[in-house]
From TrEMBL:
Keyword annotations: Fatty acid biosynthesis, Fatty acid metabolism, Lipid biosynthesis, Lipid metabolism, NAD, Oxidoreductase
Catalytic activity of the protein: a 2,3-saturated acyl-[ACP] + NAD(+) = a (2E)-enoyl-[ACP] + NADH + H(+)
Native source organism of the sequence: Lentibacillus kimchii
Name under which the protein is recorded: Enoyl-[acyl-carrier-protein] reductase [NADH]
Record carries keyword Lipid biosynthesis: yes
Amino acid sequence: TSLLSGKNIVVMGVANNRSIAWGITQSLHNAGANLIFTYRQERSKQKLNKLLDKHGIEPRMVVPCDAEDDQSIEQAFQKIGEEAGIIHGLVHSIAFANAEELQGEYADTSRDGYLLAQNISAYSLVAVTREARKYMTEGGSIVTQTYIGAERVVPNYNVMGAAKAALEASVRYLAEDVGKDDIRVNAVSAGPLRTLSAKGIAGFNDKVSAVEEKAPLRRQVDQDQVGDVNLFLLSELARGVTGEVLHVDAGFHTVA
Ligand code: 0WD
């Protein structure tokens, strides 16, 4: 397909080949998008460049951006705006919490740990939307990644559950703000995927087996499936969809 041909899409959060953002990258590339990447760690940049090379994907730009730092976000988008001209779409695939707060009781969460998780995992979408919007002059679509731990108590997800709840509320409030500029904001709620970040969550394997047992489709989802739903939300096919949280979890969220 060429659903996104000629469209400039910014992808934030590829750390390695297991990253959700990497699955999204492949879907967007197959749909003809011009891809712009942001990375935080130098190590991630090297991995990203290797991956792009291996898959024959020519990036439009690769730009550093620390989602914890307003100035870094501003500079990154200024650079992207100046060089690419127009941004049509943005993928936010970033989250962080201290590993010691992804186990035990949520009641033990420290103030600093709480603020850190909110800062990187939820506030960053607000800051990024504000900066990207300046260059989304033809309307556009922003998609972030969330998890069912925002809606229900998932053991050990703890502080990240509170951050994802804030992220999902932010999707709705941001959608209201930027809707005036014909920009849509949505979230994809993926089932559990074995990624670098997921390794930090205690008992993660149990979450995967629970999906395989209980989800209507009786299997887990993979990065490709999550990538394709991100593609849909970024494309004109979803032009009537905003402020939405779309589950890509083999139906797991529907069963008791
Ligand atoms: O089961 C899962 N893995 C699920 C993940 C299920 C449902 C949702 N998600 C969400 C995550 O919460 C996150 O929002 O998907 C998003 C991506 O997660 P992932 O693909 O599991 O994570 P990973 O491959 O570890 O990438 C996370 C990346 C970091 O990599 P580096 O090594 O460069 O820090 O998050 C980014 C970063 O790219 N990140 C940051 N980026 C910029 N500034 C920052 C930061 N301060 N902190 C983390």
